[in-house]
From TrEMBL:
Gene designation: Lyz
Protein name according to UniProt: lysozyme
Lineage of the organism: Eukaryota, Metazoa, Chordata, Craniata, Vertebrata
Keyword match Hydrolase: yes
InterPro entries in the record: Glyco_hydro_22, Glyco_hydro_22_CS, Glyco_hydro_22_lys, Lysozyme-like_dom_sf
Listed GO CC annotations: extracellular region
Localization in the cell: Secreted
Length: 139
């Protein structure tokens, strides 16, 4: 028996495991970056995308893409967002593949320009000012 429609193509990306994501962030210099910790970034990724590389959120006038939920109004080009800036010089679709190197570069650019993680509502609403040690414990 074949079950169709359980996993729609393009809706489920790679789910990166918690400890694998910790390793990726450490390897890419996130610890101490712009006054943040790997635990901050882990909490951000959990609440923004659930560690899903293909995460997508339609906000109406703009959309958020990928594991860091990078917005089309300022950071990437999806060809549909009026007045988009594309400050990361990247197609938004590239932020939804399983290679997150370009996502990392753009996320770091965002954090650098903001001097922290305040552009991400997932971080502001769920992570800022909290004990986040559980996000990296055991990894």
């Amino acid at each position: 028996v074949i079950f169709l429609g359980l996993a729609l193509p393009g809706t489920q990306g790679k789910i990166i495991s918690r400890c694998e994501m910790v390793k990726i962030l450490r390897r890419n210099g996130f610890e101490g970056f712009e006054g943040t910790s790997v635990a901050d970034w882990m909490c951000l990724v959990k609440y923004e995308s659930g560690y899903n590389t293909k995460a997508y959120n339609n906000n109406g006038p703009s959309r958020d893409y990928g594991i860091f939920q990078i917005n089309s109004k300022y950071w990437c080009n999806d060809g549909r967002t009026a007045g988009a800036k594309n400050a990361c010089h990247i197609s938004c679709s590239k932020l939804q593949d399983d290679n997150i190197e370009d996502d990392i570069r753009c996320a770091k650019k965002i954090a650098r320009e903001a001097h922290g993680l305040s552009p991400w509502y997932g971080w502001k609403n769920h992570c800022r000012g909290r004990n986040l040690s559980s996000f990296v414990r055991g990894c």
